[in-house]
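Hi! If you just cloned this repository, the fastest way to understand the data is to look at a raw example. We've pasted two of them here, unedited. The first protein comes first, obviously.
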Amino acid sequence: MSGALQEKSTASVNRHRDKKNTCQDRKIISNKSALSMPAPVVPREIYPQHQNWLMKFLRIKPVVTVMPFQVNRVRARKEMVTLLREWRRYGMRDIVVDKTAGRVWASVGVNNSLHIRPVSLAIETFTVLERGRKANLSLARFTQEKGAKSSFERVVKTMEKVLANRGLLMENGERGRQMARVLM
């Protein structure tokens, strides 16, 4: 091969490599910019237990419980999340928090210290309005997503006792029931 022809062929190969490298560099840069931008967050929904024909026939519905708090929505959610995380050693699993929507998901695992059946639950927190303004009050709605009703009730009752001992729940029973009627 002559020297001039060899130089042309190596030059064309080098140009092709340079084009390929710049394309890869562009892809890397575009991927970096895509990684730096947060992915769109799709909020998780609360899905109560699927009803088969027997549950529909017997009119069995998933359990929903409402708790009135005498603290704001953010503090109520934080306290419930803290409590659920403390209970991890006793068998609480899959704790997921959505701060913007004020929702918390958790489940009782198969292996737990109380030997209760597994259950999945969702908690939504709401701000209470009095005379059109935000009050320093909130409500939490507990929904059974999947699992045993008895286990759900036991978890909710225990949470209610612990939160009452911490002084977070409404002490005035009538006012709390009036607030809870809004969500029922």
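Ok, and the second one:
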Amino acid sequence: MSIASISRLIPILSGKGGVGKSSVTVQLALTLSLLGHNVGVLDIDLTGPSIPRLFGIESAKIRQAPGGWLPVQVHERGEEQTADGTVSRGALHCMSLGFLLHDRGDAVIWRGPKKTAMVKQLLSDVLWPRDLDYLLIDTPPGTSDEHISLMTSLMDPARISPSQKLGAVIVTTPQAISTSDVKKELSFCQKINLKVLGVVENMAGYVCPCCGETTDVFSKGGGEIMAREWAVAFLGRAPIDGEGWGMLIEEGKTPVYQSAEGNGNGTSNGEETSNGTTSKQTPVERDPGRLAIQYTRCSLYPVFKSIVDKLLPFNASLPVQPNADGG
């Protein structure tokens, strides 16, 4: 199925690098999946495709099918028993240039025309599942060739259907040096008539692994002030959770916090990891099929559930914009 049949398209944008767009994209995708929606993630950050690593599927390969490429499955739709009861989740699929590289350390050194051609190919040649509810699109920083190619394709009346919904989520960090650049992305959206669903203030404080208290290391409130200035919705702020989110992504361990368990390594002694083995410090092979369930134990899950709860009503009533010529 092409993107013309996907009901809701959400580019994740920012005019600043290093604000955590990919992390926000992955957590929005996991949260939507845990709410029962079928979700796709398209990574068009061609020079820094980090989505496969965040999902733990770097070794996956793209399969060719009649008519195009098949996206990589992160997990299938189904139900799973946890300590808190039964969790239902929608299917989650991913497509990224990272799957096409021979080695994850390979540099992508392309000029504008080749980037434009690849973005168009990713938008036209990926055969997404027919029952996909949301497609989240992770983008590089700035307002460059990838963004122009993406928006030109997404806002082309010949490519979209009247029932589709299109709107962007803007990601920033709290400090002024970040919001000053992210405002340029809001200006970009305004010029091409792209609806902004809201602003997420990422890295809004650091969660202490000992007591759970949040410290505002990058100041606080910059994203909310920016959203107010530009008359767009403020979706919420997400802190840095190195102990929970960091250990889940880097080591595949289910988050267990010191403040709850009282031990010093961030996980319970002999905790079961995502591959079913027990380990205290040794890195483990992650099981992407368990990622969503493990994420429910992360302190950031209720934060992003609140963000998604605010996002969905805006998205549900969003009109498709007619053009992307910047006029």
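That's it. A detail worth noticing about the second one: The first strand starts at residue 8 and ends at 13.
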